[in-house]
Amino acid sequence: MKKKVAAIIEARMNSSRLYGKVLMKVKNKPLLLHLVNRIRKVKKIDKIIVATTTNPKDEDIVKFCKKNNLLFYRGSENNVMERVMHSAKNFKVGVIVGITGDCPIIDYKLISLCLNIYLNNQADYVSNANLRSYPDGMDVQVYSSQALRKSYRMTKNKEDREHVTLHIRKNPKIFKIINIVSPQNILFPKLALTLDYYEDFKLVKKIIEHFEKKKNYYFSCEDIVELIKKNKKLLSINDNLKRNEIKI
Predict the structure, then answer these.
(1) Under a CB-based contact definition with an 8 Å cutoff, are residues 110 and 186 in contact?
(2) pLDDT, tens digit, for every residue of 5-41?
């Protein structure tokens, strides 16, 4: 029987640096909806699930999900590993496409690439972000719910539980890992297209507005890199900010 494939989006309001970032609006649409619309373009994804928390502050995310007919699961705020694992179990998911809510302009073709490589190889985990080569914010992880459960049983480390696949990535002798590295034309690991700070939001907003003006609603990573290289002022919006080393 074919395993159900679901994109599980980790999303919460309570970010210390940029509160409510996933529901900030560009072109009258919450960024979480921009992300969901991109994921919907991936043909082999059966379900989209928003994995949010039981914190009352995340009631707005629940309202967003109900309004947009999205599946959601509420779990632990800090034990994100458990939250994702229970999301998968609750909706009978066999293959997890892990995407964080702070990647609103992710390239759906990169999601398809990672998913196809996973489906066509005997791997426990496939990602384009474990070895940073693509811009930050193009992060895709594909892994089985079985591997996640195995990993969960093997670690009680707080950091492992906070970063869903960290334990898997630290143990390549236990889990079969495939790392995808970007082609030369979009090799841009220092470019941040993620949402950590307000400056990141300003950059993402400018990028969306630029391409939507041209009716290019599903612009690619390549489109973004070309735009940034032609317009260096865009890069200066957020290129001097301190980033966490462990992201995905």
Answers:
(1) no
(2) 999 999 999 988 899 999 999 999 999 999 999 999 9
Please count the CA atoms within 13 angstroms of the CA of 226 that sit on its side-chain side: 7
Using the predicted structure, report yes or no on whether residue 245 has a pLDDT greater than 80.
Answer: no
Among 19, 106, 5, which Cα is nearest to 61's?
19
pLDDT at 247: 61
Token digits of residue 93: 């998911």
Number of H helices, E strands in the chain: 10, 9
Please give the single-letter amino acid code of residue 111.
I
What pTM was estimated for this model as a whole?
0.96
- 8-state DSSP, 186: G
HEC-encoded secondary structure of 91-151: CCCCEEEEEECCCCCCCHHHHHHHHHHHHCCCCCEEECCCCCCCCECCCCEEEEHHHHHHH
Length of the chain: 248
pLDDT tens digit sequence for 116-169: 999 999 999 999 999 999 999 999 999 999 999 999 999 999 999 999 999 999
What Å distances lie between residue 198 and 10, 118, 221, CA to CA? Answer: 19, 34, 21
DSSP assignment letter at 26: E
